[in-house]
Amino acid sequence: MVVVGGGVAGSVAARFAAKNGFKTLLVEKFKTPRNKPCSGIQFQYFEKLIGEKIPREKLCRNELSRVEMVTPRGKVLKGRMKMLNFWRSTFDSWLNSLAADAGADFRDNTSLIDLIEDKNEDKIIVKVSTEGMQEEVKTRYLIGADGMLSRVRRKLRPQDFDRKASGATVNYYFVGEANLDPNTLYMFYKREFCPLMFAWVYLKDDKWVIGTGANENPSEYAQRFFSYVKEKYGLRGEVVKKE
Ligand SMILES: Cc1cc2nc3c(=O)[nH]c(=O)nc-3n(C[C@H](O)[C@H](O)[C@H](O)COP(=O)(O)OP(=O)(O)OC[C@H]3O[C@@H](n4cnc5c(N)ncnc54)[C@H](O)[C@@H]3O)c2cc1C
């Protein structure tokens, strides 16, 4: 079995494959821990999906135990709800190590560059490259978990890639003071801030994450939402990153 992509999907798939007796190679194109633009928020049931309790030190220092939702009509709903809060670099790296502990051969800095079906042998020849060194691996099973621009899917289903993807999510990372609770995930179901779902604010260790998503002009929505949050919650400090 060859699994391409050392993100959540690939690492978990490789771990289960190895646990179930498959000789498994997991390849990740970047040196790990690698950065991944992602808010790193998940429901607690994620632990059931990945089949492991997440060690406390793999999560952010501040826990998210409450949610506050602002409805389209401006009503504020508050409740208790525990959410997982993590940095994807730390988290995915831990998942990589779980796959390796289960017996998978994990190789970072290693990219899938091509795949060819060998119909005679009913196998797939997978070409990988580690720092310029190329190698061919024959496998009966291949899992493409190589993200949104997946090379595996592009090769097998090019028709899925003939339209340009639209839409994006934008996060501002802000360091400083805010009149906000560090243990609350704030969600704003307001079309002026997010035309798709909701815009969000919450703390990740020492950084406030202020973000939104839109099919068109996501940066405009993000800027408008950031200005709103800055004024309403008295942000004092600076934006250290936008992604
Ligand atoms: C700004 C932002 C915020 C988000 N916030 C959240 C959130 O709070 N909660 C949530 O659940 N989701 C969130 N998401 C979505 C989430 O990031 C994705 O759903 C998730 O990362 C998908 O996981 P994956 O393992 O399928 O792919 P990825 O995490 O994209 O992993 C794919 C891996 O494959 C590797 N790879 C790519 N090509 C190759 C190749 N040729 N050879 C080898 N390796 C390769 C990549 O380097 C990468 O490590 C967010 C996304 C964005 C952009």
Give the structure's gist in a few sentences.
This protein is α/β, with parallel strands linked by helices. The chain is built from 5 helices and 15 strands.
Can you offer a commentary on this structure?
- This protein is α/β, with parallel strands linked by helices and about 240 residues long.
- It folds into two domains: about 1-40 and about 90-160, FAD/NAD(P)-binding domain (3-Layer(bba) Sandwich); about 60-85 and about 165-240, 2-Layer Sandwich (D-Amino Acid Oxidase, Chain A, domain 2), CATH 3.30.9.10.
- Helix content is about 20%, strand content about 40%.
- It has an eight-stranded mixed sheet with strand order 3-5-4-12-13-14-11-15, with helices on one face. It has a four-stranded parallel sheet with strand order 6-2-1-10. A three-stranded antiparallel sheet has the order 7-8-9.
- A hairpin with a 5-residue loop joins strand 4 and strand 5.
- Helix 1 packs parallel to helix 3.
- The longest helix is centred in the last third of the chain and has 15 residues, at about 220-230.
- It is elongated and about 65 Å long.
- The protein binds flavin-adenine dinucleotide.
CATH architecture of the largest domain: 3-Layer(bba) Sandwich
What name is given to the CATH topology of the largest domain? Answer: FAD/NAD(P)-binding domain
What's the number of structural domains? Answer: 2
SSE arrangement, N to C:
EHEEHEEHEEEEEHEEEEHE
| Percent in helix | 10-25%
Task: Name the overall outline.
Answer: elongated
**Oligomerization state:** single chain
How are the strands of the biggest sheet laid out side by side? Answer: 3-5-4-12-13-14-11-15
State the CATH class of the largest domain: Alpha Beta
Distance between the termini: 34 Å
What is the CA-atom radius of gyration, in angstroms?
21 Å
What's the helix count?
5
**Unreliable stretches covering 5 or more consecutive residues:** none
Question: How many β strands by DSSP?
Answer: 15
